[in-house]
TrEMBL record, chain A:
Name this protein carries in UniProt: Pyruvate dehydrogenase E1 subunit alpha 1
Organism, as annotated: Ficedula albicollis (Collared flycatcher)
Matching InterPro entries: DH_E1, PDH_E1_Alpha_Subunit, THDP-binding
Native organism taxonomy: Eukaryota, Metazoa, Chordata, Craniata, Vertebrata
SUPFAM superfamilies: Thiamin diphosphate-binding fold (THDP-binding) (SSF52518)
Gene from which the chain derives: PDHA1
GO BP annotations, alphabetical order: pyruvate decarboxylation to acetyl-CoA
UniProtKB/TrEMBL annotation, chain B:
Gene Ontology MF, one: pyruvate dehydrogenase (acetyl-transferring) activity
SMART domains (alphabetical): Transket_pyr (SM00861)
Organism this protein belongs to: Ficedula albicollis
Protein name (database record): Pyruvate dehydrogenase E1 component subunit beta
GO biological process: glucose metabolic process; pyruvate decarboxylation to acetyl-CoA
Gene3D superfamilies: 3.40.50.920, 3.40.50.970
Transmembrane segments: none
Length: 339, 270
């Protein structure tokens, strides 16, 4: 398929108005305009669409019981991880909680390896041993089962501020903690202020440019030696908390539909690009087709790749350790452990 | 940590709270409250503070929930004086032990099993009655036998019952003991059984090192039943690895019926 217009017909970049951020202990925040080039737009679109389709494929595979255990999907929140990655460097370090597939992708793990990890195969990024919540790569520390919404975060704020650590604390506020709305769970829902002595920003997490500009601002702030920042991204997840949560017992279908029709991050980007002559509808459709194909191939791999071999059950218990023996379910079953 | 602390404080002030952890893996975030605030307070205050609290929730392996959500805490909590630790298997265990735990004036950790929540069990008339309680610290012989003693707690009790059926066809009659309580452990029931059968196999979902089975073996050696053993005791446990995600690896990291059958045959040298 060939686009019906020459690439020379498109603008090379455009300037967009973005929502101002709410500020806490900051004199000024990120600007209210953002410049996006055609290349950037196409890349953001492709990345967000890839994550969207990858999550929907995961939903499908979970319902077919090919993915087991926990599965927390990211669809709706794509602008967050893509916007963050657009504003940081590959050498920066990122860590997140269990809703990790989007970040795993933006940090450089292929869809193939992510899906194969979800299906528990040896081609998975953790060789099938980690599953949905335990995905890692260089400068990406997972994928963790426990949440930061506990006392530890305040200890961390204290130390980060005391030592002026260049650290951005991001809260992806998708309005619900599992099945409890933020109003019912939090004494204060102004999460960007909860760092108290740490300055904070509240950002429209459905607008990738807003996220990008805010993170650029925050990264600049931190790298200049000013210490940490708290950033609240106001976002939304279309799926329930996890695959065992239908997601409609604590919120209405109407609410979900409203967000989808008015604030979907991919649609917002698409409309901006088309309306500002950065891309054509057909061109974006071609990207959709290519993305679908990539996801299908990855799913094919993920469902046909073999499970990790039983002999490797004991591997990687320790790092950089000479091989030793691991006890199985009884004293006569032994596995070798190799680092 | 926060809500566990609120619950412990409420217990100290005179209420009888039941504090639920989504799974006991999350109790690691709150473990200081369970041990240092709940378990030790009566002792530290020479009896003037009591903490009649129950901590309950799913423990151990589930299905495909991987390393951070599959740990068995029977050994960790069973290690601590001041705590009582119970581990139900059947429906009547769950009901009777929960009631006893709430009525007990001490902190009780009740280790349930997510995989057992959906399993139906027969319940006697008596078990269905309003005030049915099961005493803490008393094991139950689920199946009498003569050739070997199988001791387990929680879901592995079911695996032992299945193994017993398989072995019965080969002429081996297993006595299956459901521990029901980890601490205080009813070692007397196990001893009486070993005196009768002369062979012991322990089965648990947790890791082998410093586990429930290790404790049972140590106590048997210290007591009268040692002289009645015709072979060393055998432990069947979870594999000594963090729980892997991939199904084939997970299946081989928990004790299965075939592992129990194999262990019995090794113990009996058949």
């Amino acid at each position: 398929m060939v686009a019906s217009r020459n690439y020379g017909d498109f603008a090379s970049e455009a300037t967009f108005d973005i929502k101002p951020c709410d500020l806490h202990r900051l004199e000024k925040g990120p600007g209210t305009t953002a410049v996006m080039t055609r290349e950037e737009g196409l890349q953001y679109y492709k990345t967000m669409q890839t994550i969207r389709r990858m999550e929907l494929k995961s939903d499908q595979l979970y319902k077919q019981k090919i993915i087991r255990g926990f599965c927390h999907l990211y669809d709706g929140q794509e602008a967050c991880c893509v916007g963050i990655e657009a504003a940081i460097k590959p050498t920066d370090h990122v860590i997140t909680a269990y809703r990790a597939h989007g970040f795993t992708y933006t940090r450089g793990v292929s869809v193939r390896e992510i899906l194969a990890e979800l299906t528990g195969r040896k081609g998975g990024c953790a060789k099938g041993k980690g599953g949905s919540m335990h995905m890692y790569t260089k400068n990406f520390y997972g994928g963790n089962g426990i949440v930061g919404a506990q006392g530890q975060i305040f200890e961390t704020y204290n130390m980060a501020a005391l030592w002026k650590l260049p650290c951005i604390f991001v809260c992806e506020n998708n309005r619900y903690g599992m099945g409890t709305s933020v109003e019912r769970a939090a004494a204060s829902t102004d999460y960007y202020k909860r760092g108290y002595f740490i300055p904070g920003l509240r950002v429209d997490g459905m607008d990738i440019l807003c996220v990008r500009e805010a993170v650029k601002f925050a990264a600049e702030y931190c790298r200049s030696g000013n210490g940490p920042l708290v950033m609240e991204l106001q976002t939304y997840r279309y799926h329930g908390h996890s695959m065992s949560d239908p997601g409609i017992s604590y919120r209405t279908r109407e609410e979900i539909q409203e967000v989808r029709s008015k604030s979907d991050p991919i649609t917002l980007l698409k409309d901006r690009m088309v309306n500002n002559n950065l891309a054509s509808v057909e061109e974006l459709k071609e990207i959709d087709v290519a993305v679908r194909k990539e996801i299908e191939e990855a799913a094919q791999f993920a469902t046909t790749d073999p499970e990790p071999p039983l002999e490797e059950l004991g591997h990687h218990i320790y790092f950089n350790e000479p091989p030793f023996e691991v006890r199985g379910p009884n004293q006569w079953i032994k596995y070798k452990s190799v680092s | 940590m926060g809500f566990a602390g609120i619950a412990v404080g409420a217990a100290m002030a005179g209420l009888r709270p039941v504090c639920e952890f989504m799974t006991f893996n999350f109790s690691m975030q709150a473990i200081d409250q369970v041990i240092n605030s709940a378990a030790k307070s009566c002792y530290m205050s020479a009896g003037s503070i009591s903490v009649p609290i129950v901590f309950r929730g799913p423990n151990g392996a589930s299905a495909g929930v991987a390393a951070q959500h599959s740990q068995c805490f029977a050994a960790w909590y069973g290690h601590c004086p001041g705590l009582k630790v119970v581990s139900p298997w059947s429906a009547e265990d769950a009901k009777g032990l929960l009631k006893s735990s709430i009525r007990d004036d001490n902190p009780v950790v009740m280790l349930e099993s997510e995989l057992l929540y959906g399993v139906p069990f027969e319940m006697s008339e008596q078990a269905q009655s309003k005030d049915f309680v099961i005493p803490i610290g008393k094991a139950k012989i689920e199946r009498p036998g003569t050739h070997v003693t199988l001791v387990a707690h929680s879901r592995p009790v079911g695996h032992c019952m299945e193994a017993a059926t398989v072995l019965s066809k080969e002429g081996v009659e297993c006595e299956v003991i459901n521990l029901r309580t980890i601490r205080p452990m009813d070692i007397e029931t196990v001893e009486a059984s070993v005196v009768k059968t002369n062979h012991l196999v322990t089965v648990e979902g947790g890791w082998p090192q410093f586990g429930v089975g290790a404790e049972i073996c140590a106590r048997i050696m210290e007591g009268p039943a040692f002289n009645y053993l015709d072979a060393p005791a055998v432990r069947v446990t979870g594999a000594d690895v963090p729980m892997p995600y991939a199904k084939i690896l997970e299946d081989n990291s928990i004790p299965q019926v075939k592992d129990i059958v194999f262990a019995v045959k090794k113990a009996l040298n058949i």
